[in-house]
Structures are given as structure tokens and as C-alpha cells.
Design a protein that fits this description.
Layout lengths: L28 E4 L6 H4 L1 E4 L5 E3 L15 H23 L8 E10 L6 E10 L5 H14 L1 H8 L10
Antiparallel strand pairs: 1-2, 2-3, 4-5
Helix pairs in contact: 2-3
């Protein structure tokens, strides 16, 4: 039997009042092109620590061959995992057991009617068997305000793009 991993020592309290972004964790993933010379269709994504190493493929719905992961799946996994973690944290703080929680993220890739470019749409579905909706509602709202993926979707996220020399 494996021992359960304890949750990280994170807080929802306002325990930071600095005026600058304070990173707690940083990771780097590099995508390099494959036979199609771009990561969207046939590249490889590798994290600096080697924990993530997978092939990227264009989904069949977009004309690709399909076997492999695509950016929308990676985003959906990240968003669902992050929201699940935030909701689990607030559930534990409310003395509720989050073990039965699951979060399903559906990411749709499509055309942006505003400019004709591309845009993503995300729908999250939380499954929490046995929880009263009136008890769950404030916890969902608190998790939504805590989850950085949800915040990013609501208000954007700072990003820099630099050409390496």
C-alpha cells in the first residue's frame, strides 16, 4: 500500500502583501518542431526536469493524424488540475473531504468573431457526489478566485516574448 502524499503547505489567507509578483514555483517546457517543422502538428514537448516528455499532434478534427497530445488537451489538463487543487484546498479548510471531487475541463478551439483570429473557450464541470449545492456554491466561488488558471482566463496573464540571441 502506498502512503498518501500530503497536500502542499499553501494558504488562501492574505499572507502576502508585497507589491511585486512573488514566484513560488517555476517550470520550463520547450516545444520543438518535428517532421512538419512546427510543434502544433508534429513536435515534441519536454519539461526542463524531464517529467513531461510527449509528442504533439494535430487533432484529426483539424486535419491531423491524431495520435498524440495537442495544446488544447494540455491546457484542459492544466486548468482542471489547478481548479481541482484550489477546490480541494478550500474544501479541506471547510472541514470537507475533497476525495470524491473531480473537475472536467472542456477546451474548444475556434474562430474569434471579433478579429477572425483564434480563441479558446473553456467549460469546467465539477462533480462532487453528496455535496449540497448551497454548501458547494461559496466554495466554488472561492476556488474560482484562488485558481490562477481561472484568474488568467478572466483577466489575462502577463507574458513576455523574447527572441533568444
Amino acid at each position: 500500500m502506498t502512503e498518501q502524499i500530503p497536500p502542499p503547505n499553501l494558504s488562501t489567507d492574505k499572507d502576502f502583501d508585497g507589491e511585486y509578483f512573488a514566484p513560488i514555483y517555476t517550470t520550463t517546457v520547450t516545444v520543438s518542431g518535428g517532421t512538419a517543422s512546427h510543434g502544433r502538428a508534429s513536435g515534441r514537448a519536454r519539461s526542463a526536469d524531464g517529467a513531461l516528455d510527449l509528442n504533439l499532434r494535430m487533432p484529426a478534427e483539424l486535419g491531423g493524424d491524431g495520435p498524440g497530445t495537442n495544446p488544447e488537451q494540455l491546457f484542459a489538463a492544466g486548468f482542471a488540475a489547478c481548479f481541482h487543487g484550489a477546490l480541494s484546498l478550500v474544501a479541506r479548510q471547510a472541514a470537507l473531504d475533497p476525495a470524491a471531487l473531480s473537475v472536467e475541463a472542456t477546451v474548444a478551439f475556434g474562430r474569434d468573431p471579433a478579429d477572425g483570429g483564434y480563441v479558446l473557450r473553456v467549460d469546467l464541470v465539477v462533480k462532487w457526489p453528496g455535496i449540497d449545492p448551497e454548501i458547494a456554491a461559496p466554495l466554488l466561488a472561492k476556488a474560482d478566485s484562488l485558481c490562477p488558471y481561472a484568474k488568467m482566463v478572466r483577466q489575462g496573464t502577463p507574458a513576455t516574448i523574447t527572441l533568444a540571441s
